[in-house]
Amino acid sequence: MERFADEVIIEVSSGSGGNGCASFRREKYVPRGGPSGGDGGKGGNVVFTVRRNLRTLAHLRFKHTFKAENGHDGEGSGRYGSNGADVIIPLPPGSLIRNIDTNELIQDFSDNQEDFIFLKGGNGGWGNIHFKSSVNQAPRKALPGKPGQTVKIKVELQIMADIGLVGFPNAGKSSLLDRFTNARPKIAAYPFTTKIPNLGVLTIGERDVIIADIPGLIEGASQGAGLGIRFLKHITRTSALAFLIDLSEDNYLDAFDILLKELGSFSEELIQKKRVLIGTKTDLEESNGRLAELTAKYPSEEILGASVFSGDGIKEVSYAFMRLAEEE
């Protein structure tokens, strides 16, 4: 869990082109051999590629510099230099590349899964075979290779999921994710157990629904309080939200309003997403009657009750998740 990383700054460099060669044929019985210098090879490109088995940017945490290979110099006898190898940088789906100075988006890897050539390598220099003419039969001119480019960029990760679980710490998000999937998040009876987003896959029939468990929010999260602010961005790409409300807590009737306010303060788009409210821990004695009170307060919202411990309502919640994920 400590290896989670969702934002890194890296320096990438394309390769320089190889130098052209100035040489002449030196062969027996060819007393006045012409130019024979080959061209330099092209420098390698900087290429980003999506790897679906990656879930974080942890592999970029300790290696911040990536450089493609330079093109090789041309040689005599018309031998061209070989091209430099590309440097290929793998990223998980949902990654963004931004300009480090302006924060301008350069590439979004949520929809486009094709390899992205970010920086092209420098062209190789011409050898002197290109400069032979009727007035200059023995040119000594050859061109150097073009230099590569070096750029610092910011790489961000926004987790892509169908359903984002939203709630206060210890509302039962991780327990629900564990019940539905094999994500096996850390679960304990104290706040802020979840320190990183967890992903799991709920499978019903032949349909998979990706669920994201986001670290618990507290009031003021949109202004930086608690652990929530760093991870609010991860639910911006979810198709729908599930608000988990702990019915055993005294603030159960106010929880949804507070959570909705925090999400709206961070992004108006979040409160426009499809959603369902889930009253959790219905098996506890102190939760008796509270699901009905919650339903009465929000008659226009879809509200379900569930208990991970007893299993009550779990099937209904799973079907609701499936429906929300399939709705356009």
Q: What are the low-pLDDT stretches, counting only 5+ consecutive residues below 50?
A: 183-195, 220-228
Q: Mind telling me which CATH architecture of the largest domain this is? A: 3-Layer(aba) Sandwich
Total tally of structural domains = 2
- How is the main sheet built? 6 strands, mixed
Portion in strands: 15-25%
Characterize the structure shown.
- The protein has 328 residues and is of the alpha/beta class.
- The chain folds into two domains: 1-157, GTP1/OBG domain (Spo0b-associated Gtp-binding Protein, Chain: A); 163-326, Rossmann fold.
- The protein is built from five helices and 14 strands.
- The protein has helices at residues 173-180, 255-266, 268-271, 290-297, 314-326, and strands at 7-13, 46-50, 65-67, 87-91, 95-99, 105-108, 116-119, 150-157, 163-167, 198-204, 207-213, 240-246, 274-280, 303-306.
- The strands form three sheets. Strands 10-11-9-12-13-14 form a six-stranded mixed beta sheet, sandwiched between helices.
- It is rod-shaped and about 105 Å long.
- The chain starts with 6 loop residues before the first strand and ends with a helix.
- 43% of the residues are buried.
- The model is unreliable at 183-195 and 220-228 (pLDDT under 50).
